[in-house]
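User: Last request for today: this protein with AHG, please.
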Amino acid sequence: MPQKISLTRYLVEQQRQDGHIPSQLRLLLEVVARACKSISQAVNKGALGGVLGTAGSENVQGEVQKKLDIIANEVLIEANEWGGHLAAMASEEMDNIYVVPNRYPQGEYLLLFDPLDGSSNIDVNVSIGTIFSVLKKPEGCAAVEEKDFLQAGSKQVAAGYCVYGPQTTLVLTVGDGVAMFTLDREQGSFVLTDENVQIPADTQEFAINMSNMRHWDEPVKRYIDECLQGKDGPRGKDFNMRWIASMVADVHRILTRGGVFMYPWDKREPEKAGKLRLMYEANPMSWLVEQAGGAATNGRQRILDLQPSKLHERVSVVLGSRNEVERVTDYHSGL
Ligand code: AHG
Ligand code: MN
Ligand code: MN
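Assistant: Here's the final one, the structure of the complex with AHG:
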């Protein structure tokens, strides 16, 4: 029987082989994985653990917080603040950055996360997840401030997510392809179950919230309309649709079998660039998708090249199978 490779062993071997995981980053990723295990336990207990329902508060973006949004946020902070690998953290659920308290040593890295993605699915027992992104603290920066987090996605040194679905799966990139690890609950460890993940360049499956169709911009309407025409339209083939309403689960499907995911700008709140958050959702997911041979744009530019101007910035997102993302992006430039 082939030997099982744990996340720990995978990271140690990555560190040995090409040295692009320094030991502090390795520790950080182990700690994030441990926190995800703990969140997975809470998610699994559901009503038995009293973790369902709303918390009665709002986050900085005016969204109602669920109990699990807050629990997951706390688990990630508590797990990460004392190990000496981090300088500061930022979260979708916190107004401001969280600098590692003075009583602990400060490390080289900055951690950003969407502690619980897909909040609307928590209470209905549908897949949800945690998304994370790791940046280096800028050189010569003594006291970390919000501006130190404002780095383009291309500067990420690690990114990933953990999806809490029928299986709990951790998906990771450190810039050397995408690897997937499934949680073995009996052993209590993540086991490597897929490596060198590749998204097919073509697809016949799209993911978008169709209820917003009347609010979309013309290029998005055109693209979806052509998909809907199927065999009888200009694409000459039928398309299937999926929308889980947890980005983490939609992206997981795309990494597994291809597809295109879109949460475009729309006219409901025209002053907002989109719904999804650049630094907690779009950047880590875009890097994973690119590392698997796919593409990610905001309809016009590569997401990883965008220079963030604020922590909680939003962005329009088109990602997944390369040829479809290119087509949507071409439509935006009038091609
Ligand atoms: P979050 O739960 O972190 O706020 O993110 C939810 C996001 C994303 O996961 C999903 O793709 C999208 O919101 C769903 O939005 P709609 O409810 O508008 O479809
Ligand atoms: Mn989210
Ligand atoms: Mn969230």
